[in-house]
Task: structure prediction
Amino acid sequence: MPINITMPALSPTMEEGNLAKWLVKEGDTVKSGDVIAEIETDKATMEVEAVDEGVVAKIVVPAGTEGVKVNSLIAVLAADGEDVAAAAAGGGAAPKADAKPAESKPSEAKAEAPKEAEKPAAAAAAPAPAATASAGPAPSRDGNRVFSSPLARRIAKEAGIDISAVAGSGPYGRVVKSDVEKAVATGGAKPAAAAPAAAAASAAPKGMSDDAVLKLFDEGSYELVPHDGMRKTIAKRLQESKQTIPHFYVSVDVELDALLALRAQINDSAPRKDDRPAYKLSVNDMVIKALALALRDVPDANVSWTETNMVKHKHADVGVAVSIPGGLITPIIRKAETKSLSTISNEMKDLGKRAKERKLKPEEYQGGTTAVSNMGMMGVKNFAAVVNPPHATILAVGAGEERVVVKNKQMVIVNAMTVTLSTDHRCVDGALGAELLGAFKRYIENPMGMLV
Result:
C-alpha cells in the first residue's frame, strides 16, 4: 500500500510552510531517519526526515513551492516490494493551492450569500487573544467591562442569560460562579442579547487598505514588495502585543566601568585552544546573566499572564533579539541564571550564527520568560522595546558611552548606558518593575556578584 508523506508541523503554531528543497528524487530508496527535504517556516529552515522505508514513487509538491498547508500531501512512498508505478498512481492527489471552488447554481448562490456576508463581521468580533472558546470575552455593562470569571461566563452562556445583569459578589464586584447559579435559580437575569455584527465590526481596529495607501503616491514612484512569512508573523505578534498588553516603562542609567574591567580580565585569562581563546565575553553576555539573576532574586517578576492564572516560572529563560535579513528572531538561553558567563557567551554565538542561517529549531526560539533587545552597537542611546507574549518583560539596552556625573560633589567621567524595562502591567506593576531593574543595576555595577 502506498505511503503518503505529508507536510509536517514543525512547531505548534505552524499552519503552512515553503518546500524549499527536495534532497531525494523519484526512484530513490530511503530509510527511516534519512533527510529527504528542507522546509522553510517563517523564521527557520528545517530538515525533514523519512519515517518509513521505501522508494520515492512520486513527488507531488515540487521544490520551491510556497504556502504548503500542514498535513497536505507532498510525496508518495512505495513500500518494500511494492510496484513503484502502482504506488505513484495509487497515492493521494496533490492539493491545488489556487484551486477555485466549483460554480454553484444561481439559487444556491443566493442561499449562500447571507452566510458569506456574515463572515467578516464574525471575524472582526473575535478578540485577538482568545480566553476560552466556551466562555467568550467578558461582556460590557453600559459600555464598561463586566469583570467575571471564565467559568461564570461559560455557565451564563449555557443558561442563556445576560451576565452583565448579574450582580457580582467577588472582589471589586467580579461575577463568580455562585452569582450566576443564583441568578439562574431565581430568574433574576435577562436573556443574553447578541451584539450587532455591524457594531462589532466597526469597533475592530482597521489599517488603511492597499488602495487607500497607494492613492497617496504617484504611480511609478514606488515598487510593491510582498510580505514574506516572517514579516507577517512579526506584524501579527506585535499588533497583538500592543492591542492586548498594557505596557509600562521603567528606565535607569547604569555605570559600566567595573563590568568592563572584569570583562577584560576574564577575556585575557581565557584558556586557548588551537591558538584561539575558549571564549570571549561581550557586554551583552553579561547583560543576559545579570537579567537572569535579577529575575531569580525578584521571582514575582518572572511570570507570564493568562486570563485565569499567573504563570510563575522556576527558571529565567532569556530570549535575545537577533537581527536577520527580513526581520528578527529571539533565540533563548535556557536556565540562564544557572550558567556561567563563558557558557552563555558560547551558546549565544552558536544560536546567533544559526539564527542568521535560519537553522534554529522551534524549541530554540519559542517560549522564554523574558528578553533582551540591545541596540547599543548601533549607537542608539535609549529606546523602549515591545513586550513579546508570553513574556511579561523585555529589557532595551542602549549604547555605552562616557558621561560626566557628580560623585562626592566632584564631576567625574564614567562609562554608562541607559536601559529601559518594558513590562506587562497586568502582572508586573511599576514598583515590581523598578525592583527588578534595581537588582539588574546592582549586578551590572558590581559584576563580581555574577561569578559567585
